[in-house]
Amino acid sequence: FWGATVITNLLSAIPYIGTTLAEWIWGGFAVDKATLTRFFAFHFILPFIITALAIVHLLFLHETGSNNPSGINPNSDKIPFHPYYTIKDALGL
């Protein structure tokens, strides 16, 4: 509760729109149960949205390939993205 209060009160320091923005995020004039429920839902949904966007990004990258601004021949000594980089990224190496 107090963490949400402190962080959202920081928004009120923004000139001109700060207090309006803080009240819009609170959904009223103070942090209450509805605000905390919205924050919880946001924190629950956000990782799924980020994961979905990362998957879409990888699919587009796989379809079109990466950009080649340097003009160097891109076909020299390549290894396939999957499984090598997939495993590397999954393990955080």
TrEMBL record:
Using the record's annotation, list all stretches that form the Cytochrome b/b6 C-terminal region profile domain: 71-93
What Pfam families does the record tag this protein with? Cytochrome_B
Where exactly are the transmembrane stretches of this chain? 6-27, 39-60
Q: Which domain of life is it from?
A: Eukaryota
GO molecular function terms noted in the UniProt entry? metal ion binding; oxidoreductase activity; quinol-cytochrome-c reductase activity
Q: Which Gene3D superfamilies match?
A: Cytochrome Bc1 Complex, Chain C
Q: Which PROSITE patterns match?
A: CYTB_CTER (PS51003), CYTB_NTER (PS51002)
Cellular location(s): Mitochondrion inner membrane
Q: Name one cellular component (GO) term.
A: mitochondrial inner membrane
Q: What is this protein called?
A: Cytochrome b
- Keyword Cell division in record: no
Keywords in UniProt for this one? Electron transport, Heme, Iron, Membrane, Metal-binding, Mitochondrion, Mitochondrion inner membrane, Respiratory chain, Transmembrane, Transmembrane helix, Transport, Ubiquinone
Subunit structure, as described in the record: The cytochrome bc1 complex contains 11 subunits: 3 respiratory subunits (MT-CYB, CYC1 and UQCRFS1), 2 core proteins (UQCRC1 and UQCRC2) and 6 low-molecular weight proteins (UQCRH/QCR6, UQCRB/QCR7, UQCRQ/QCR8, UQCR10/QCR9, UQCR11/QCR10 and a cleavage product of UQCRFS1). This cytochrome bc1 complex then forms a dimer.
